[in-house]
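Hi V.,

Quick status before I head out on leave. The structure for the redesign project is tokenized and pasted below; the design run finished overnight.
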């Protein structure tokens, strides 16, 4: 017995010495240097803590927007698909963690035997029943921490999947808001087209009367009839555009079976809330894609550790117990127990394992570069969104002024035309100028709304990382911040 344990001890020592030759692998440290401030941003009295960034749509004070976003998050196929993938990731983590636990099966066998005299003299020997039960578990002793690293990697990958889940919901909320604003813009365009049609009908009717009285030339009458036909043709197209926008919005919110008439779209675009000032540090704390990229680096580092520890010996303990009970002539019961210890040292597989370690190291360094790229792209996306938003907000005053002044000029030209003081060309030019200014103003309002949504989305708005992130991810993130 003593010699056997001495031999095992020598084997373990030899394996440890051999494993000491395993190379030490250190991944590159990510370079997350970005400017300390964004080039463009909102200037508001409200602080970032006062703005409901986790439920940013409530800051618009728009009940319809709130209802549509909440419906989409609960019913849309995008949200349900994200939830299914998260459930799959949770189950995958359980499978991986279970693979590091002791394993073994309880096996039972029941046997019935009997003999019968076929010829000759004597009596039948009868039969016997045998019941056998065995249990042989196997447990790998985690001497070097390979199994612990495997469990930790499973937690990291599940946390990353949870961030993908929230990223999908963040994008969905932003898409719903943008689609609603696009639909309202389509309703405004339709209302403008109908108003233009009314104006064209009045002018054409006035021209017909003037033509009959000899006060309007045939050329002017034809020109107004042409404008009337063009205005009339534009209305059905915009009605179709509004219907399409409604249907797209219903599908996006998970209510594709609802009639488009059930969705009321107002022909108005309210001013969006002013976003608070933000710093690039918010990207590292809020954006799911940035957080997921950071977790990918941690997962890669754990993968390197696991593959390096694969070069170390594995020590297993295999106890066993068995019970046999029999009836009949040889009836009785017997018990069996065993205790085995195993040691596996990867001698001939060392070349393959070393190559696999280099592969994992390269993937880890790629994850580091990808993390840097994600942070840089997130910074650029957010800064660009804030710059565009600031520019749109700055130009809205001029667009409002241009629309108001051009409308006043058109009203004056219309009065002059009715009184015979303004010619038709001047009137139509005034109308075109006003309609163009009105379209530019409406487009500016839409750009301001969608730009606000884009900026909030770029800043990672739409969830609360501390509350919504799973416990594993919060622990991992806290460890990474140390």
């Amino acid at each position: 017995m003593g010699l056997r344990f001495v031999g095992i001890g020598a084997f373990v020592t030899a394996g440890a010495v051999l494993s000491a030759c395993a190379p030490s692998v250190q991944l590159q440290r990510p370079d997350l240097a970005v400017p300390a401030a964004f080039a463009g941003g909102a200037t508001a009295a409200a602080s970032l803590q006062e703005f409901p960034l986790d439920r940013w749509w409530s800051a618009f004070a728009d009940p319809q927007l709130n209802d549509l976003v909440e419906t989409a998050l609960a019913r849309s196929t995008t949200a349900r698909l994200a939830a299914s993938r998260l459930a799959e990731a949770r189950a995958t983590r359980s499978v991986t963690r279970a693979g590091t636990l002791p394993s073994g099966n309880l096996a039972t066998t029941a046997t019935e035997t009997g003999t019968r005299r076929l010829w000759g003299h004597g009596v039948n020997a009868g039969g016997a029943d045998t019941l056998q039960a065995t249990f042989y578990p196997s447990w790998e002793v985690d001497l070097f921490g390979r199994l612990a690293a495997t469990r930790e990697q499973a937690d990291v990958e599940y946390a990353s999947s949870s961030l993908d889940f929230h990223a999908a919901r963040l994008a969905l909320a932003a898409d719903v808001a943008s689609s609603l604003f696009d639909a309202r813009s389509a309703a405004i365009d339709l209302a403008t087209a109908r108003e233009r049609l009314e104006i064209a009908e009045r002018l054409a009717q006035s021209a017909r009367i003037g033509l009959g009285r000899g006060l309007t030339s045939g050329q002017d009458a034809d020109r107004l009839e042409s404008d009337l036909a063009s205005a009339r043709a534009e209305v059905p197209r915009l009605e179709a555009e509004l219907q399409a926008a409604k249907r797209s919005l219903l599908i996006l919110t998970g209510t594709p079976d609802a009639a488009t008439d059930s969705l009321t779209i107002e022909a108005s675009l309210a001013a969006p809330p002013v976003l608070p000032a933000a710093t690039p540090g918010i990207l590292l704390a809020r954006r799911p894609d940035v957080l997921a990229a950071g977790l990918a680096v941690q997962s890669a580092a754990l993968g390197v550790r696991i593959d390096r520890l694969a070069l170390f010996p594995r020590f297993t303990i295999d106890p066993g117990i068995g019970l046999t009970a029999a009836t009949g002539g040889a009836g009785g019961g017997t018990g069996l127990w065993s205790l085995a210890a195993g040691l596996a040292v990867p001698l001939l597989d060392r070349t393959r394992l070393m190559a696999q370690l280099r592969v994992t190291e390269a993937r880890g360094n790629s994850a580091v570069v990808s993390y840097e790229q994600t942070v840089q792209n997130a910074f650029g996306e957010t800064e660009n969104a804030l710059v565009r938003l600031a520019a749109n907000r700055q130009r809205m005053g001029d667009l409002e002024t241009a629309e108001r002044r051009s409308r006043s000029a058109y009203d004056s030209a219309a009065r002059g035309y009715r009184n015979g003081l303004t010619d038709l060309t001047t009137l139509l030019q005034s109308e075109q100028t006003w309609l163009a200014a009105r379209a530019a103003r409406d487009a500016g309002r839409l750009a301001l709304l969608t730009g606000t949504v884009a900026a909030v989305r770029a800043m990672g708005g739409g969830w609360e990382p501390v509350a919504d992130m799973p416990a594993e991810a919060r622990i991992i993130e806290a460890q990474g911040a140390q």
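Above is the designed sequence. The mean pLDDT is 86.

G. will cover questions while I'm gone.

Best,
W.
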